[in-house]
Specification:
single chain, 345 residues, alpha/beta, 7-stranded parallel beta sheet, two-stranded antiparallel ribbon, 18 helices, 49% helix, binds coproporphyrinogen III
Length: 345
């Protein structure tokens, strides 16, 4: 099969045959085929079973006609190999039973052995690649050090990440040790995903938008840069942050190929502020995908128009698909972006 290369073309800033589209959490509970597989299983059980994991990825790609798949995993999974215990609670998110808050706790973290600790992820990648049969590229991913540190320290999802920021300010040595350990883990984990065949990687720094620009520089950016550079000359790298507007230039400075931005920034501003250094992924509000109809179509038109002549645009949502979203709204978004950006149009 000839691969639909639009996603990789856009990552490489070559002009694609149409603007590629994919959605974060495209394999999720809004999709009937996913709910059928999930039943009462925890999400981690699906991720640890290569047959089920590969099935939900491919079901989503087929249901939506998107231009890329993303491996079915969770950002928390490799932390198990470091000795962090967690559960993912429905409608809450990750809950860590042994939060990591002191220097001793940081020092006692284990080193991840990717093939031993998360071998099921790589088996899942191979099974997924086989089922995709080269139809579309497969995106691998990892959580970024700040966002993972946030879950490890807080122990549960938190809006302001107060404990995390307090560790940064009051115990910089503990903070930097934790960030170094996570950077080492993520670098090894992503390298293994690449060696098992993923075509691109996305680094999820979902919650780092809560930092000031100067704190991002002092406490985070060097680690992100190290991870990005570890993949130099390898596969395209996408940087994701929710609430990304205030740190956009700094994210671009860490060396990704593509910046995923949310709806709080006009995409024309994202293009202007990143000065053509990176491609831009985004940035429909997930609530507009939920609402559908004319409001959704109007905003899609605006995003496409403001990205005209920009070969590095990947159309996506600013964050994950919401649970009550009608799959048909996403299918309509895909059709509309494809039709209005097709070079044959
Ligand atoms: O198609 C896909 O994108 C699915 C693969 C995927 C999952 N998690 C599976 C999952 C990906 C890329 C993730 C990444 C992830 N996990 C992030 C970064 C992206 C982001 O949203 O910012 C984060 C922060 C997590 C941690 C996490 N896991 C949260 C906040 C939740 C939501 C809890 C809930 O019930 O709403 C999860 C659970 C989770 N991971 C779900 C999925 C499909 C939803 C629960 C389910 O379907 O069983």
């Amino acid at each position: 099969m000839t691969m639909n290369s639009t996603f990789l073309d856009a990552c490489n800033k070559k002009e694609p045959a149409h603007t590629p589209v994919w959605f974060m959490r495209q394999a999720g509970r809004y999709l009937p085929s996913y709910r059928a597989v999930k039943g009462n299983r925890p999400v981690t059980e699906i991720a640890k079973d290569p047959l089920l994991a590969s099935q939900v990825v491919v079901d989503a790609v087929k249901a939506l006609d998107v231009d890329a798949g993303i491996i079915f995993a969770d950002i928390m999974l490799p932390l198990e190999g470091m000795g962090v215990q967690f559960k993912i609670e429905e409608n809450v998110g990750p809950v860590v039973t042994n939060p990591i808050r002191t220097l001793d706790e940081v020092n006692s973290l284990k080193t991840l052995s990717p093939e031993e600790d998360v071998g099921y992820i790589f088996d899942g990648i191979e099974a997924t690649l086989q089922k995709l049969d080269d139809a579309v590229p497969l995106i691998g991913f990892s959580g970024a050090p700040f966002t993972l540190a946030g879950y490890m320290i807080e122990g549960r999802p938190s809006r302001d990440l107060e404990l995390t920021k307090q560790m940064m300010y009051r115990e910089p040595e503990t903070w930097h040790r934790l960030m170094s350990a996570l950077t080492k883990m993520i670098t090894a984990y992503l390298a293994c995903q690449v060696s098992h065949g993923v075509d691109a990687v996305q680094l999820f720094d979902s919650w780092v938008g809560c930092l000031s620009p100067s704190d991002y520089k002092s406490y985070v950016s060097d680690y992100t840069r190290e991870i990005m550079h570890s993949l130099d000359g390898n596969v395209p790298r996408i940087h994701f942050c929710a609430n990304s507007s205030s740190l956009l230039e700094q994210f671009a400075d860490t060396g990704p190929d593509v910046l995923s931005v949310d709806w709080r920034v006009q995409i024309s501003d994202a293009w202007r502020r990143s000065e053509g250094r990176v491609g831009i992924q985004g940035n429909l509000d997930p609530v507009l995908a939920l609402a559908g109809g004319e409001a959704m179509r109007r905003e899609i038109g605006r995003i496409v128009e403001q990205s005209k002549g920009r070969p590095g645009h990947i159309f996506s949502l600013g964050h994950g698909v919401l649970r009550q979203t009608e799959p048909e709204n996403l299918r309509e978004a895909v059709r509309l972006v494809h039709e209005t950006t097709s070079r044959r149009a």
